[in-house]
Write a structure and sequence with these properties.
By secondary structure, this protein is mainly alpha-helical. 50% of the residues lie in helices and 4% in strands. It has a two-stranded antiparallel sheet with strand order 1-2. Strands 3-4 form a two-stranded antiparallel sheet.
């Protein structure tokens, strides 16, 4: 007579290590396909190129990643202070990339997050020209949503502040200061 096993087989994978960074062990940028990039705008028009740029930042060598991040910066935070409609949708992916040890331009990503957190260009213009608030595509709303998106993920600051890399720690300190943390 056979007896049933008393233990249930595990459904969890055991062939990978859990990252020590506190970052989930899911595939980086897995949620990119959930954003309707073609339907939102960046500074060049359609934001359809943003997933490719984010992937280049994630997986490119140093030169490729930095070039992609520079292009991304121009699309979502032009001049370091003008955000676009696509900015808020991009921010969670920037936070994700900033926490991945293999990404080569993490301090620059954190600096971009700080620029977005500091952005007040459209609010400043609307203070002088209130009619801006009446436009169908309201950039003041984009700016507020982008800042909220940065604040929503600020829990990652503690992990980033503990980094041994001085550039990452410095950029994170500046971002924490911008967020009032």
């Amino acid at each position: 007579m056979r007896t049933a096993p008393t233990e249930q087989p595990s459904t969890q994978r055991t062939d990978h290590e859990t990252p020590s960074t506190g970052v989930a062990s899911t595939t980086p940028l897995a949620a990119l396909g959930q954003v309707p990039w073609r339907d939102i705008r960046d500074s060049t028009g359609s934001a359809a190129a943003i997933p490719l740029l984010l992937n280049s930042v994630a997986w490119g060598d140093t030169e490729t990643a930095r070039a992609a991040l520079d292009d991304l910066r121009q699309r979502i935070c032009q001049y370091g202070f003008v955000v676009e409609q696509a900015t808020a949708a991009t921010v969670p992916f920037l936070w994700e990339l900033a926490q991945l040890p293999h990404v080569t331009c993490r301090p620059q990503i954190i600096q971009l997050l700080k620029n977005i957190a500091d952005a007040r260009q459209w609010e400043s213009v609307a203070a002088v020209y209130p009619k801006l608030l009446n436009h169908r595509e309201n950039p003041v709303v984009w700016e507020r949503r982008a800042r909220q998106a940065v604040r929503a993920r600020r829990g990652a600051l503690h992990t980033l502040l503990a980094e041994q890399d001085s550039e990452i720690a410095q950029a994170t300190t500046e971002l924490a200061d911008a967020l009032g943390e």
